[in-house]
Amino acid sequence: MTKNRRNHSASFKAKVALEAVREHESIASIAKRYKIHTNVVYKWKRELLDNVQHLFEKGETAVHNGSSDREAELLKKIGELTVERDFLEQGLGRFR
User: Contact at 8 Å (CB) between 31 and 20?
Assistant: First the structure.
């Protein structure tokens, strides 16, 4: 009998880690409420505290991440449209 691992989203991990950092509850009660192991909560808390400095180091790049996501989406769409155009050109070339 095998158990499948659960993949948690980044927002879920951040929520749990922030609760652990606030220390309004014990780690054990947080882990029990979210049905995860206490070691996982400790790990996410440590990752949050270790990486929070990057938020302030890269303050301006965090603002531009929204535009880079939009750029990536537009580039993907351009690629799709280019493939469609090339396909249609080849198809029309047969009938000329």
Answer: no
